[in-house]
Write a structure and sequence with these properties.
The protein is of the alpha+beta class and 384 residues long. It has eleven helices and ten strands. β6 and β7 form a beta hairpin.
């Protein structure tokens, strides 16, 4: 566990270290603060090669839901209640204009997944838990599945241009993490915000600065009904019902434009027969200007997903409780390890979709180790 400043010191002191060795060191690190895009870009220039760059990307993605270092938070005063109301009113206007006026389009969604545990555990313990699924390594996180699929936004809904191709890539491994293939990045998640705002569900949190622009960040908590949509043939369905979400939105105060939205939810695994532990999902979508048909729109440019689940619950489902106690004793564990999946998603190649448009299949996914078995389906099918 280290701060952003400590990470910067470590990388600065690693000049001359081989790319592969430095990558392994970075994969074992875990940040206690969010690594901003500005800091990430600065550190990337100091790395020796692609492996360490990929490792840095993994722990940066993992930190996306943490607070920024206090030194990076502007010290300007919080807006008054009246000013906050005006900002949110502009956001309501922005949402009413934006969600319904996007053209039909298609885009490429490229996903890089990482799998591992939230804390480093002995290699023998890792092999015991995950070896059955072919995962063997001696570092906390490893690169996993990579895929590239075409997402189609049409008549206000986002789906897949080629469902068979999507399943072939994103369900390529029978244990593929279902969050990798969730939809809703373009319109559905934004459609929830007016209800949250109308119920006074947003509270002021802090200012952030994106280059020369100040962003107003609000936090929220809300309960929404959910009916599961299965994404892969072997996915475990989530029971329908109300689920509680919380997160934050970052808006441009001058015009209410939403530039970032996050959601966190938790699900009791005993509802699915997994045991008493909790499954947690964290999703984030970052929006930015995108040209579609020679017109600029605000669309998703990047998203993240971090899923957490009790690792030993997966391993001990069919084993007596005594084996779990013996496992902890054998490897000297004082707490159960938490399995973690991290998805880095980039959206690009936006094009207007017309009736005569012909979309070619995406390229094959790059090889990578399989992920552990599917955890419960995403309770909100949210974007990452």
């Amino acid at each position: 566990m280290l701060t952003v400043a400590q990470l910067e010191q470590l990388i600065s002191a690693s000049h001359g270290v081989k790319d592969k060795k430095l990558a392994k060191q970075i994969y074992d690190l875990k940040l206690t603060e969010r690594l901003s895009d500005v800091s990430l870009a600065r550190l990337e220039k100091e790395l020796p090669g692609p492996r360490s760059l990929e490792a840095l990307t993994a722990i940066a993605d993992e930190s996306a839901f943490l607070a920024l270092p206090t030194s990076e938070i502007p010290s300007r005063p919080a807006p008054s209640s009246e000013e906050q109301s005006e900002m949110l009113s502009r956001t309501m206007d922005y949402l009413s204009r934006t969600v319904h006026k996007l053209p039909d389009f298609y885009a490429t969604r490229a996903t890089t997944a990482y799998v591992g545990t939230t804390t480093a555990i002995p290699p023998g313990a890792y092999d015991t838990i995950f070896g059955f699924w072919g995962l063997h390594h001696d570092q906390r996180l490893v690169p996993g599945l990579k895929s590239s699929v075409t997402v189609l936004y049409r008549d206000g809904q986002d789906t897949y241009a080629d469902e068979k191709e999507r399943v072939r890539q994103e369900c390529a491994y029978s244990a593929s993490e279902p969050a990798v293939i969730s939809t809703g990045q373009f319109g559905q998640i934004l459609a929830l915000l007016p209800e949250i705002i109308a119920k006074d569900g947003l509270t002021w949190d802090h200012w952030e600065q994106d280059e020369a622009v100040y962003l107003a960040v609000f936090r929220y908590s809300a309960v929404f009904p959910y009916q599961d949509e299965l994404n892969c043939p072997d996915e475990v369905p989530v029971p329908p019902g109300p689920y509680e979400y919380h997160g934050e939105i970052a808006i441009r105060p001058e015009d209410g434009t939403v530039l970032r939205i996050t959601r966190t939810w938790r699900l009791r695994l005993d509802l699915l027969g997994y045991g008493p532990e909790m499954y947690e999902g964290n999703s984030m979508v970052i929006y930015g200007p995108v040209e579609i048909g020679q017109v600029l729109y605000i669309c998703p440019v990047k998203s993240f997903f971090v899923g957490l689940a009790p690792a030993l619950d997966m391993w001990t489902q069919t084993r007596p409780p005594a084996q779990r106690v013996e496992f902890d004793r054998r490897f000297g564990l004082t707490e159960d390890p938490i399995w973690e999946s991290v998805d880095d998603v980039v959206f690009r190649k936006y094009h207007v979709f017309r009736a005569e448009t012909k979309i070619l299949p995406s390229f094959n996914p790059a090889p990578g180790p399989p992920a552990p078995p599917s955890q419960p389906g995403n309770p909100s099918a949210p974007p990452r």
